[in-house]
Amino acid sequence: MKAVNVRPITELKNRTKALLREVVESGQPVVITQNGKPQVVVMDAAEHDRLQDTLAMLKLLAQSVDSLARTRTSSSADVRRRAKLAADKARQR
User: Which of 31, 69, 71, 92 has its CA at 20 to 30 Å from residue 60's CA atom?
Assistant: First the structure.
Protein backbone atom coordinates (compact mmCIF):
# COMPACT_ATOMS: atom_id res chain seq x y z
CA MET A 1 0.00 0.00 0.00
CA LYS A 2 1.40 3.39 -0.99
CA ALA A 3 1.27 5.78 1.91
CA VAL A 4 3.44 8.55 3.16
CA ASN A 5 1.78 8.80 6.55
CA VAL A 6 1.41 5.45 8.32
CA ARG A 7 0.62 5.24 12.02
CA PRO A 8 -0.08 2.41 14.46
CA ILE A 9 -3.54 2.02 15.93
CA THR A 10 -2.20 2.93 19.37
CA GLU A 11 -1.51 6.45 18.10
CA LEU A 12 -5.12 6.72 16.94
CA LYS A 13 -6.29 5.52 20.36
CA ASN A 14 -4.00 7.81 22.35
CA ARG A 15 -3.98 10.93 20.16
CA THR A 16 -7.30 10.85 18.28
CA LYS A 17 -8.03 14.57 18.48
CA ALA A 18 -4.53 15.62 17.42
CA LEU A 19 -4.41 13.06 14.61
CA LEU A 20 -7.76 14.22 13.23
CA ARG A 21 -6.61 17.85 13.36
CA GLU A 22 -3.45 16.88 11.47
CA VAL A 23 -5.45 15.11 8.76
CA VAL A 24 -7.84 18.04 8.31
CA GLU A 25 -5.07 20.67 8.30
CA SER A 26 -2.72 18.80 5.97
CA GLY A 27 -5.37 17.29 3.72
CA GLN A 28 -3.26 14.13 3.66
CA PRO A 29 -4.76 10.77 4.64
CA VAL A 30 -3.25 8.62 7.37
CA VAL A 31 -3.07 4.84 7.13
CA ILE A 32 -3.73 3.15 10.46
CA THR A 33 -2.02 -0.19 11.01
CA GLN A 34 -2.93 -3.00 13.35
CA ASN A 35 -0.26 -5.59 14.11
CA GLY A 36 1.87 -3.93 11.42
CA LYS A 37 -0.73 -4.38 8.66
CA PRO A 38 -2.72 -1.54 7.04
CA GLN A 39 -6.33 -1.70 8.25
CA VAL A 40 -8.04 1.66 7.66
CA VAL A 41 -7.42 5.09 6.18
CA VAL A 42 -8.39 8.29 7.98
CA MET A 43 -9.04 11.13 5.56
CA ASP A 44 -10.66 14.54 5.49
CA ALA A 45 -14.40 14.36 4.73
CA ALA A 46 -14.15 16.95 1.93
CA GLU A 47 -11.37 14.93 0.27
CA HIS A 48 -13.50 11.78 0.63
CA ASP A 49 -16.40 13.54 -1.12
CA ARG A 50 -14.11 14.66 -3.98
CA LEU A 51 -12.83 11.11 -4.31
CA GLN A 52 -16.38 9.72 -4.45
CA ASP A 53 -17.34 12.30 -7.10
CA THR A 54 -14.31 11.35 -9.19
CA LEU A 55 -15.14 7.65 -8.92
CA ALA A 56 -18.75 8.30 -9.94
CA MET A 57 -17.58 10.29 -12.96
CA LEU A 58 -15.15 7.54 -13.97
CA LYS A 59 -17.90 4.93 -13.66
CA LEU A 60 -20.20 6.94 -15.93
CA LEU A 61 -17.39 7.49 -18.40
CA ALA A 62 -16.63 3.76 -18.45
CA GLN A 63 -20.31 3.03 -19.06
CA SER A 64 -20.30 5.52 -21.95
CA VAL A 65 -17.21 3.91 -23.45
CA ASP A 66 -18.81 0.47 -23.15
CA SER A 67 -21.95 1.76 -24.80
CA LEU A 68 -19.93 3.31 -27.61
CA ALA A 69 -17.96 0.10 -28.07
CA ARG A 70 -21.20 -1.78 -28.65
CA THR A 71 -22.22 0.71 -31.34
CA ARG A 72 -20.97 -0.23 -34.76
CA THR A 73 -19.94 3.27 -35.80
CA SER A 74 -19.99 6.64 -34.11
CA SER A 75 -18.98 10.01 -35.38
CA SER A 76 -16.48 11.98 -33.31
CA ALA A 77 -19.22 14.53 -32.65
CA ASP A 78 -21.44 11.76 -31.22
CA VAL A 79 -18.61 10.52 -29.00
CA ARG A 80 -18.00 14.05 -27.69
CA ARG A 81 -21.74 14.56 -27.10
CA ARG A 82 -22.06 11.33 -25.12
CA ALA A 83 -18.93 12.04 -23.07
CA LYS A 84 -20.25 15.52 -22.25
CA LEU A 85 -23.60 14.06 -21.18
CA ALA A 86 -21.83 11.56 -18.92
CA ALA A 87 -19.67 14.28 -17.36
CA ASP A 88 -22.70 16.55 -16.83
CA LYS A 89 -24.58 13.67 -15.18
CA ALA A 90 -21.65 12.98 -12.85
CA ARG A 91 -21.43 16.64 -11.81
CA GLN A 92 -25.11 16.65 -10.85
CA ARG A 93 -24.53 13.95 -8.20
Answer: 31
